[in-house]
Write a structure and sequence with these properties.
Blueprint lengths: L3 E3 L8 E3 L13 E4 L5 E8 L6 H5 L13 E8 L2 E8 L3 E3 L11 H4 E5 L2 E4 L6
C-alpha cells in the first residue's frame, strides 16, 4: 500500500511519506496488566503515539524508557496500595487473564458491565 500524501507547496506536488504508526493491541474497556510492575487497569483512552510531557518521559530511567512511536494507554489502574491513573506504553502491557474486575472508583462513571475481561463503555461516551 502506497502511504504518501501530496505536498501542498507551490509548483508540482511531490509525494511525502506518511509516518508509520503502530496499531493499538488493546481497546477501550480492556483489562490489562503491566509487564514489569504487575498493576492492573482498564483502558479508558489511547494515544497513537506518546503524548505526555517531556518531563514525564525524562523521569523514566533511560534503560527502561519506552519508544515514543507506539500507542500509549490511559488506564484506571489499581495496585495493593490503591487506585490511580496510569499512562503506559503498549510494549509494557499484556492482557490481564485473571478474569477479575478492577476496583477503581471511576469505572462506574465511564463503564457499565464487566464480562470476559472487558468493560462495556456507557452509551453516553461512545462516538
Amino acid at each position: 500500500m502506497d502511504r504518501t500524501f501530496p505536498q501542498f507547496a507551490t509548483g508540482a506536488p511531490r509525494p511525502v511519506p506518511a509516518p508509520n504508526v503502530a496499531h493499538a493491541r488493546f481497546s477501550i474497556g480492556d483489562v490489562v496488566q503491566h509487564k514489569l510492575f504487575g498493576f492492573r487497569g482498564v483502558v479508558f483512552d489511547i494515544d497513537p503515539v506518546f503524548a505526555n510531557s517531556d518531563e514525564w518521559y525524562e523521569a523514566i530511567p533511560e534503560e527502561m524508557r519506552p519508544a515514543k512511536d507506539q500507542p500509549f494507554y490511559h488506564l484506571l489502574a489499581e495496585n495493593s496500595e490503591g487506585s490511580y491513573i496510569a499512562y503506559v506504553s503498549q510494549q509494557n502491557l499484556v492482557v490481564d487473564d485473571s478474569d477479575e474486575p478492577v476496583e477503581h472508583p471511576a469505572i462506574a462513571g465511564l463503564f457499565g458491565g464487566y464480562q470476559d475481561g472487558k468493560y462495556a463503555l456507557r452509551p453516553l461516551y461512545r462516538h
